[in-house]
Write a structure and sequence with these properties.
alpha/beta; six-stranded parallel beta sheet; 7 helices; Nucleotide-diphossugar_trans
Length: about 350
């Protein structure tokens, strides 16, 4: 049996205000907490036991998922008292693993939406005899990522963090955030202090002669670290572009959860999701957006590529494009909020007072 560690301790700072009240993996994507999609895909790949490494708002996870039995999983939770980094978090939960020294342990990050063939990564790890195997994906512009060049057999030859010059960009392969560790390798990570697997563990293993194997899988992959990426990921799940067995309904142009109310003449397109108890008024148009639980979009409003937080209200005829509206915020009628705008939780904007336009 392959078991897994899921790293869900990050603060999600770049996603604020979405993460003011909710840890990043619990923000809804396609109608359910994003973490649900990851757990369901792991179970579909044969994983049965998962340890969640929690930190920020750690108390939220267990009341929602419990022991994991509803998903066919056995879940355990370990909370970091102080942030330990990716490597430190992995080491901190090692005592909860059941694997033998040479068994594979899957490790993945709680903010990556991917179509990775998990079983293929485990098989690659086993067949190559690697100490650690990494999921790699190819991107057009790798400057924001860690590059991972490999030789002709897929063996990793270096780790290059966020190169900037053309000379430094020796490959388009990046670390995609999913790994398989030989169980005994986890015990070599130092305890009691922050450790980064990307900057410390992997380079040190490589320099010591350990076998690190890369597997390139360039199916769907998206880092959900920014609001724009999160909204896109949710829409892609609804549209069926990103695979998940946990989408609560048929994939298509829209997903409306049963307790939501949508006016007959409202238009929902582009992978829009309307969560529980949300309301969309007459003549409203919502494209590629997510309306979280209890959100209200009043008549004639136009919402595009945006996320409307739980219990937030968008006034009549207001235009919201490429923006994030925090939980409980109130945006009055006839406002216009354009690309990059973030309205904090519980903020109130009076009617016809704000115009943030892309042409100004």
């Amino acid at each position: 049996m392959t078991e897994a560690i899921l790293l869900v301790g990050g603060k999600g700072t770049r996603l604020r205000p979405l993460t003011v009240n909710t840890p990043k993996p619990m923000v809804p994507a396609a109608g359910v907490p994003f973490l649900t999609h990851q757990l369901a895909r792991a179970r579909a790949a044969g994983i049965e036991h998962i340890v969640l490494a929690t930190s920020y708002l750690a108390e939220v996870f267990e009341p929602y998922f419990g022991d994991g039995s509803s998903l066919g999983l056995s879940l355990e939770y370990v909370t970091e008292e102080e942030p330990l980094g990716t490597g430190g978090a992995i080491r901190n939960v090692a005592s909860r693993l059941h694997s033998g020294p040479d068994d594979p342990v899957l490790i993945f990050n709680g903010d990556i939406l991917t179509g990775l063939d998990i079983q293929a990564l485990v098989d690659t790890h086993s067949s190559s005899g690697a100490d650690v195997s990494l999921h790699l994906t190819r991107v057009e512009d790798p400057r924001a990522f860690g590059l991972v060049p490999t030789d002709d057999t897929g063996r990793v030859t270096a780790f290059l963090e966020k190169p900037q010059t053309p000379e430094e960009i020796v490959t388009d392969q990046i670390n995609a955030g999913a790994y398989v560790f030989r169980r005994s390798v986890i015990d070599t990570i130092p305890t009691g202090r922050p450790v980064s697997v990307e900057r410390e563990t992997f380079p040190e293993l490589l320099s010591s002669g350990a076998h690190l194997q890369g597997m390139v899988d360039s199916t769907y992959w998206l880092d959900l670290g920014t609001p724009q990426a999160f909204v896109r990921g949710s829409a892609d799940l609804v549209l069926g572009r990103a695979p998940s067995p946990a989408v609560p309904g048929r994939c298509g142009d829209r997903l409306v959860l049963p307790s939501a109310r949508v006016a007959p003449d409202a238009k929902l397109t582009g992978g829009t999701v309307v969560c529980a108890d949300a309301v969309v008024g007459e003549g409203a148009r919502v494209t590629g957006s997510a309306l979280l639980a209890g959100a209200i979009v009043e008549p004639g409003a136009v919402i595009t590529d945006s996320l409307i937080g739980a219990g937030a209200r968008i006034g009549a005829r207001t235009v919201v494009s490429g923006a994030v509206i925090g939980d409980g915020a109130r945006v009055g009628a006839d406002n216009e909020l354009r690309e990059g705008v973030r309205v904090w939780c519980d903020t109130t904007l009076p009617p016809a007072t704000i115009r943030f336009s892309s042409d100004q």
